[in-house]
Design goal:
The structure is a homotrimer.
Chain A (H helix, E strand, L loop, with lengths): L11 H16 L12 E6 L4 H13 L3 E5 L13 H8 L5 E6 L4 H8 L4 E6 L5 H15 L6 E5 L6 H10 L6 E5 L8 H9 L4 E5 L2 H4 L5 E4 L10 H8 L6 H4 L7 E3 L20 H19 L7
Parallel strand pairs in A: 1-2, 1-3, 3-4, 5-6, 5-8, 6-7, 8-9
Helix pairs in contact in A: 1-5, 1-11, 2-11, 3-4, 5-6, 5-11
Chain lengths: ~300, ~300, ~300
């Protein structure tokens, strides 16, 4: 039995298979609509995340399966002091697979160690959120046609952004990737990414402060939020925040085929005027999230659907 | 693609079609039990409303469809500051139709403008609650056999009662309706209903303070709650509240075929002794609410079921 | 139409039938997977209980049915002051059967009196929790092969423990049962169990303070939590709590075929080192809870499945 704890749990080949399956699901949804009949997904969300929870639920329902679970710790046994280990053993009696979101790093790993059903890490604190990364890879591969030979801009909070770190870790396994890291000085990527991942693997990258100057080079721009609470003082925040807002004017500097991605929810870091730009791919990304999770569920449940 | 924002979105003819369909569903539920197979309804409840939410969920399940969503803002992305526009675009990737309840007037209209799936307004603040109105019309037509030629008593808080305003607006489109408006002075219907709707359309109506005096005239009595917080002072509330409690004694004054309706939940404005009166129709109204929503979902999804 | 309010609602013969059905479900789950197609279970949880709620939901889904409801009073109409009587009449329009958890004793009885669908008491305050008791009986009968001729240890808080009282009441109906009641002085079983149930029925029992001394005699040890707030002073709690923790050392004193049960969730009254002991049956008990509820739903809905 297999779990998904980190995006790197799958080899590049296994990931290729998952992405191929997701694209087949996109193309022939009818083929898969009864694949999980009689199966149940448990969504164990110890902290609310509507987007991720509903994406899993939609995925399971699209496969003909059922869903049960809870959407916040308040409405769960967690409040009675039950351990994650005991909860997962209970859930193993109720469901065939589970997706767990937990505010504490490592909780899904503990769960997986005691579980008799596959556990998917649906986000554990600031640590991992592998289905977001798989969604990002699927979106990029589907819309750009490849995962190699790309110049990828990552913009915003690169210091604390879990999504960005996971994406870098996942993309360095493909050939000829160039990263353009765009952030204020205060929010540059940490050394354990710069040194241990990028430099160690001989990956091309540069770090800049201004989005405008690098727009023309990018095949893809991955936006993230710059949170007010990350700054030491309000002045710095006010001075910097507008620089990292993507608007129509900045989009004029980009290539005609540059894609804009964002893990959502956005607050104001992408102006709504960009939404109608054909290069804005963040809502299509949501749709790919459903296909990616459908493929993942099928793989972990070892269900194959004939052509 | 079509949404439902206000009860007046449908013409009288379209509404007739919907009510006919609802009655067919009531008569032949088996015919419809797979009509929405593979479809998903999203229930986006930014404020709790068990009655309305479960009515929608039961409706979709009766049609063979699935349901996902959230039952309060606390367990949704709303807490992360996401706009309704962005949420609906996400939900458009997860579901085929959605019902939205929101404390702010107009939120469902904003959602509909960005949605790629039909949006049903399931109540927006004190503004509109069209599926309640359609339920009321279905109940009246099913149990009285017609929507014209009726003398309809509306009793309680006629000033702030959203349900009552919507029902008046919907019923003035039928012929020969007489309204008897029963309320304390403080809670009479506002001018924009009295002047702009009733007088403007030459509708017969009268306004009275005492329920007893008009009971014998009524074909139908629509009760609503008189909320304590609507009164300027406690004395007035205490003095008036009992007058608007419907009990067995007041029911003795009514015709044998007079129906009592109430949007529910009631607190104490209808005495429980009335529940066993065959003229009490407020629980049958709940059941009609499910049929009305089933018909609505089918129409908005453009699904037709052969005889 | 029949409800389940107390474990004693069923005669011993009816209970035998239910347990036989549950064992058939365990053995041939495929036979039952469409038994409740088109049926809906409402889970009305006025206080959270993930374990019980999800067990009911899994049970209904395993039977091919659908589930709707709420998981806490906060997200329900209860906050608008609606009575349980009105709520159940609403729910009767939405579902075919319901499971109700309520903090107030007797709430499910009130609901059942007004309901037009079967109501299952899923726990009402410190009063009854009949599906837990049925689960316990099913677990014992399935794993020990009988419900008579057993020496059963009940350990922990025997004064306030609803589960323990219900289990005693249920087991005295079988032949040749011996109870060994293990608790601190402060938490001994109350007189209305000792006098009115045990002595009245000539049941063999003894009351002891130390778990070790009786371990070798037991066919079954039912553990419960000793809650800190039950003690008058902290000293007594600290002094006593460890005595009632089941660990590997104490398990060495037990017979090779002694079973350990626990209604869960546990906090620390069973050491995790016991989990791997083949005699630990508390997680299998969770699984039996699903089968028990499946059988119960079928019986209350009067659905029979051919062989």
């Amino acid at each position: 039995m297999r779990h998904l704890m980190s995006p790197l749990d799958f080899t590049v080949e296994e990931l290729d298979y998952l992405l191929d399956l997701a694209n087949d699901i996109e193309k022939y949804p009818e083929k898969y609509k009864r694949a999980c009949e009689g199966k149940k997904l448990a969504t164990l969300f110890y902290e609310p995340s509507t987007r991720t929870r509903l994406s899993f639920e939609a995925a399971m329902m699209n496969l003909g399966g059922n869903v049960l679970g809870f959407s916040s710790a308040a409405s769960s046994s967690a409040s009675k002091g039950e351990s994650v280990s005991d909860t997962i053993r209970m859930i193993s009696c109720y469901a065939d697979i589970c997706a767990m979101r937990h505010p504490k790093e490592g909780a899904p790993v503990v769960a997986a160690s005691k579980s008799s059903i596959p556990v998917i890490n649906a986000g554990d604190g600031g640590h991992q959120h592998p289905t977001q990364t798989i969604t990002d890879l699927l979106t990029i591969r589907s819309l750009k046609g490849r995962l190699s030979g790309l110049t990828i801009g990552l913009c915003g909070d690169l210091k604390f952004g879990r999504t960005v770190h996971s994406l870098i870790n996942a993309l360095v396994r493909y050939e000829d990737i160039t990263f353009v890291l765009i952030s204020p000085e205060e929010l540059k990527i940490p050394d354990y990414i710069r040194e241990d991942v990028l430099i160690q693997n001989n990956i091309k990258f540069k770090e800049v402060e201004r989005l405008e100057e690098v727009m023309p080079e990018l095949d893809l721009l991955y936006m993230t939020r710059v949170q007010r609470e990350r700054f030491f003082n309000e002045e710095d925040y006010v001075r910097l925040k507008d620089r990292y807002i993507l608007d129509a004017k900045k989009m004029e500097l980009a290539r005609e085929d540059m894609l804009v991605l964002h893990p959502l929810p956005r607050v104001n870091e992408i102006s709504v005027e960009v939404d109608n730009d054909t290069r804005a791919a963040y809502f299509r990304q949501v749709q790919y999230g459903v296909y990616a999770r459908m493929a993942l569920i099928l793989i972990l449940l070892e269900i194959s659907v004939d052509a």
